[in-house]
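Researcher: Go.
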Amino acid sequence: PGGGFREQPTGELEQTNATAAAVGYLTMAEAIGREQSQRAAAFLLRMQAPDGGLRAHEKATGGDLLSAFTGMLTLAGLDSSHIPNLAAIARFVRATARPAGGFSASGLDPGTDIEYTYYGVGCLAILRSVVAASGVGRRN
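Model: Structure:
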């Protein structure tokens, strides 16, 4: 009802990653309509947490790098008019980068992980692509 998808029909919460997977599948199957894609995009935009990342679900208190990556990738594929607060996401991604290299799941996680490093690099690539496509930061 909120525009997102759940991992299972009986699941309580709509989730960022389940929504990304469902939208990806429906897009590949050419089975997603404009209304459904608009509702999914609105759901994903609502998942942006005060820390700048995207939350896994509405009850999560903060963002995580996996949800930020899948949510941003999905939003970028849906429609360029659905853009989260890029400066906030950039701050979140920067907070997950570790001085010795690599990324962690969130700014509160002191360790690094190869999986989250993948998501961190992916987020940086998406940010660069969205910024370049939107003209944000271009000098006049």
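Model: The mean pLDDT is 92.
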